[in-house]
Amino acid sequence: MTKHLYNFSSYIEQELTQLNANLQKMIIAEHPILHAAAEQLFSAGGKRIRPAIVLMVSEITAPENTITNEQKRLAEITEIIHTASLVHDDVIDNCETRRGIHTVHNVFNNKIAILAGDFLFAQSSWYLANLQNLEVVKTISKVITDFAEGEVQQGVKSFNPQISIEDYIEKSFYKTASLIASSCKATTILSTCHTDVQNDFYLYGKHVGLAFQIIDDILDITSSKENLGKPVGLDLKNGNLTAPLIFALEEKPELYQLISQEFQNLTDINKAIKIIKNTHAIQKSKDLAQEHIQLAIQILREQYSSKKIENLLSTTYYIIERIN
């Protein structure tokens, strides 16, 4: 993480520390294998950007800027839902490592991993219901539907070079941005904000989420296995055509051949990565991410003073700085 993630107020740092402790308590399962699988998901750590954003939006919008227990619980629910989606993603993508440790299905098997993911979704739903706020339940429940929609879209367009940037953005919303957008909106509902404020923070979360996914997809091409905690080029290997490849296709038609043969040869992934890096695709992808970051920042600055949103702005800038 960069300096911005360590630039939270001490209050947020304390909340994140408590969040990590609470996550361990919230995934209690009677069967030892299921418990071990679920526990492993959180032992890998993670940046906790999603719950951090929820906590900071809570602090900004809550009466007297005091984060409520319900908002703290919402932040925890957000991270559990995110983690559950990663377990299922890892099975679908056959990813051997995540955050530098073996994935659940790699340690156990696909069946246990799917059950562990389902268990976490069920746990999050139970805690969500216990917030006893129907509008929040409706807002967050839609996210799980969006996850499924995103996976289906990604699956049916696997290795399809005709995918457009618009298709890619739509899929990225379902798979990533929906959770951040809905969590931001849900915490403003808990703050009893006006619907205009709720919608503003939904849009803020949507643009932040899209930028985050685009940056992740750039790093899949430009970073290293050590930094990513998983193999480089995994999206290409699985036929998930992302912004860098879509933009590169405009300049390098030879990529069509590699896609049509589904990167079958051992050298195809490295060859494709090299071709992409020799185009303007990475910069175009960065520009696209920057566009969404600026839209998110504009929403904040139109509504609040710089001092009040300082930590949230820092975290928003951090997302784009991950590739600098």
Q: How are the elements arranged and paired?
A:
Blueprint: H1 10-26, H2 32-43, H3 49-61, H4 69-93, E1 97-98, E2 101-102, H5 104-107, H6 110-129, H7 134-156, H8 165-190, H9 195-222, H10 225-228, H11 234-237, H12 243-249, H13 255-260, H14 268-277, H15 281-303, H16 310-321
Antiparallel strand pairs: 1-2
Helix pairs in contact: 1-3, 1-4, 2-6, 3-4, 3-8, 4-6, 4-8, 6-7, 7-8, 8-9, 9-15, 12-15, 15-16
Pfam families: polyprenyl_synt
Keywords: Chloroplast, Isoprene biosynthesis, Magnesium, Metal-binding, Plastid, Transferase
GO molecular function, one term: metal ion binding
How would you describe the overall organization of this protein?
By secondary structure, the chain is mainly alpha-helical. The chain contains 16 helices and two strands. The longest helix is centred in the middle third of the chain and has 28 residues, at about 195-220. The model is unreliable at about 1-10 (pLDDT under 50). InterPro entries: Isoprenoid_synthase_dom_sf, Polyprenyl_synt, Polyprenyl_synt_CS. One of its GO terms (molecular function) is metal ion binding.
Oligomer: single chain
Residues in helix, % = over 70%
- Number-wise, the strands total 2
Shape: globular
Strand content: under 5%
As residue ranges, the low-confidence spans are: 1-10
**CATH homologous superfamily?**
Farnesyl Diphosphate Synthase
